[in-house]
Amino acid sequence: METPNCFRQLNFLLLFVLLVAVNNLAGQGPLPQAAANRFDSLGADIIRPFDADFKEVSVARTRFRPAEYAIGSKKEKLEIRYYLQTEKELGHFSGMPHVATGRFLMDVGSNDEDAQTTVHSFQGEQLETYNADWSKLFTFQPKYEFAAYEYAQLVALYKEGRGLIWVILLFNKPPDTLDARQLAARFLE
Fold first, then answer.
1. What does pTM read for this prediction?
2. Taking 70 as the threshold, does the pLDDT of residue 18 lie above it?
3. What is the DSSP string of the chain?
């Protein structure tokens, strides 16, 4: 027996209301228009966690590139910052995400003699999850002027013809959810 159309519409409406309620309970209203426009310009989507107490945070103005958007969780003791560059904004580094990301990493990463950086390449299924052409994960110590955290992870995502997304996860002690939080943005089809 087929479900009447009005019941399907009601089920859809209830699901939509539930998703909005869960999102609002998590303290996340709509994405600020400027950030939404930037993500749209790259054909990308932000993936905000709704299973924790993440809320929008402001990042102090410094000499560093301003974040497009930032959220933080007191429970997880984790801050997530989003930085975007369209292919056009990459200028001379268009088509060279490894060089642009290296420059960005040198700008925000510690210059201390003992500072270490580890690199992980996403390939196959992981790369498909981000719908990216190129992606790397860097774990490093940030410059104190950039962020007053002991550690950072930079997820760099590149899509040819669109640009780069840099997601920075900042923490003093890695939360149990760190691996899941790395999926904080992706390119749309």
1. 0.82
2. no
3. -PPPHHHHHHHHHHHHHHHHHHHHHTT--PPPHHHHHHHHHTTEEE----SS--EE------SSPPPSEEEEETTTTEEEEEEEEETTTTGGGTT-HHHHHHHHHHHHB---TT---EEEE--THHHHHHT-SEEEEEEEPBPTTT-S-SEEEEEEEEETTTEEEEEEEEESS--TTHHHHT-SEEE--
